[in-house]
Amino acid sequence: MPSRILPRLRFKLGPVILLGPGKTDLLEAIDRTGSISAAARTMDMSYKRAWQLVDEMNRHLDHPVVVAAFGGSHGGGAHLTPFGHELLTRYRRMQTSLETALAEDIAWLDEHVVKTE
What we know:
Blueprint: E1 11-13, E2 16-19, H1 21-33, H2 36-42, H3 47-60, E3 66-69, E4 77-80, H4 82-111
Antiparallel strand pairs: 1-2, 3-4
Helix pairs in contact: 1-2, 2-3
């Protein structure tokens, strides 16, 4: 049976969370929907918050992660840049490596968690 305990990888740059589960979920949603607004809706997040998270990543990394087009005849949209795709791929790979590396210790910890089911 898989563990109920899941490690989550988060990278901080001072007080800023540069990249973590929420931001990578947002990037995947933008990639899937082609829109920051639609991605925010699928995550029950305000457009303003989603835009802030995207802007934060774009400002703190040396390449843009998401490019947005506003209005126009096609109504705007957003997409991940090649760098954004690479960032997402590498994050997922690091997350998998973390889970693999910690599996034995997490299994031990899981045995000592009070069962609530």
